Structures are given as C-alpha cells and as structure tokens.
Amino acid sequence: MTLTAFLAYCGAITLAAATPGPAMLTVITNGVSRGFVRALMAGVGVAAGDAVLVTLALLGLVALAQTFEWVFLALKYAGAAYLVFLGIRMWRSAATHEDGARTAQAGFFRSFFLGASIALGNPKAILFHASIMPLILDLNAMTFADGLLVVMVVIGVNIVTMGIYAALAGRASGWFKTPRRMRLMNRFAGGAMIGTGALIVAR
Fold first, then answer.
1. CA distance 10 to 5
2. What are 141-182's pLDDT values in tens digits?
3. What span, in angstroms and rounded, lies between the C-alpha atoms of 15 and 167?
4. What is the pLDDT of residue 199?
5. Rounded Cα distance, 14 and 136, in Å
6. Nearest to residue 80, comparing CAs of 121, 125, 38?
7. Neighbours of 147 (CB within 10 A)
8. What are the residues whose beta carbons fall under 8 Å from the beta carbon of 151, sequence distance 6 or more?
9. Whole-angstrom Cα distance, residue 78 to residue 84?
10. DSSP, residue by residue, the chain
11. Rounded Cα gap, residues 100 and 85, in angstroms
C-alpha cells in the first residue's frame, strides 16, 4: 500500500466516522449523563463493530453478510431497544450519580455492547467500506499486512473520533452538579437516547 493511498483512506474513514449519526449521538449522551469513561467505552464498541464490517468487506464477504442480514438487523433492534430502555430509566431516575465498582464495571460492558451493536446494526456500512476500498486501495496487490493495517486504521480513527466526542461530552457533564441541573441533564440525555433509538429503527 502506497503512502498516498494510506493517507487518502485515513481521510475518508475519518470523515465517515466524524459524520453525525446514531453512534455519535450515543457517545455524546453517554458522556453527558455518565461521564467520559462510559462514553469512551461506547466509542470503543463502535470501533470494534466497524472493524468487523471492514474485515468482512476485505474478505469479500459482502454477499454473505447480505444473506445473513437478519443477524445485523437483530443487533440493530437490540441496540435501539436498549437505548430506549436506558432513556426511559434515565428520564425517571433520581438526581444522583451511580456508585460502586461493580455497577461501574457492568456499565462499562453495557456501554461497549451498546456501541458495538449500533455499529454492527447498520448493514449498509459494509457496503460503504466495500465501495470505497476499490476507489482508493489496490485490493489485488494488498497483502495480509496491508489488510491488518486497514483494520487498525478503522479502529484507531473510530476510537480517536469518538474519544473526542466523549471528552467534550464528559466535560459538559461536570456542569451538572446540583440536583436541579442533574435532573435536567437526566431528562435531556434520556430524551436524546429515546430519540436515537427511534432514529436507529427508522433508518
């Protein structure tokens, strides 16, 4: 892979990752309501899900992915349902922070699952990767190392992009210290999660 092709692919993936959508909204709402680390875990989940789609595209398994589209749809609806559930629970929650290492650890896993399910629940994304790769990369000349580099680029770009969103949202969460502001934040984040879940289903 040439340096020019590598940089062009990095640019294209960065633009795609930074484009507003359900993944970005999920990371931001997690950051505002639960802080930077939980939002970052959701971003890592998005990166992992997108890496799976890129790997399928590299292996030429687009047709196979379309055949088993119901798996992606199941993940899509599971992620959307979980978002709506979180939104309703947050809307009704008291103005308090979650405590306890066990709760935090479970929250990290749930945030990761949420991000991954949203990424994998968009089967059209694999078509995006499959269509953009031949325009920038010479697939016939690609080696295993090149393919591994492409996957690492996708993971890295997603983590950095979502990490920036998570950091900005996490900083905003520090403003919500008083019970009144926290209650307002819970209503805002809960409504945003419900809306994002509805958007995922409607796509």
1. 9
2. 778 888 888 899 999 999 999 999 888 887 766 665 556 666
3. 19
4. 73
5. 14
6. 121
7. 17
8. 51, 54, 55, 58
9. 10
10. --HHHHHHHHHHHHHHHHS-SHHHHHHHHHHHHH-HHHHHHHHHHHHHHHHHHHHHHHTT-HHHHHHTHHHHHHHHHHHHHHHHHHHHHHHHS-S-----HHHHHHHHHHHHHHHHHHHHT-THHHHHHHHHHHHHS-GGG--HHHHHHHHHHHHHHHHHHHHHHHHHHHHHHTT--SHHHHHHHHHHHHHHHHHHHHHHHH-
11. 21
Q: How many residues does the chain have?
A: 203
Q: Which two tokens stand for residue 14?
A: 């960065």
Query: 60: alpha, beta or left, given left = phi > 0 and alpha = psi -120 to 50?
Result: left
174 near 4, Cβ under 8 Å? Answer: no
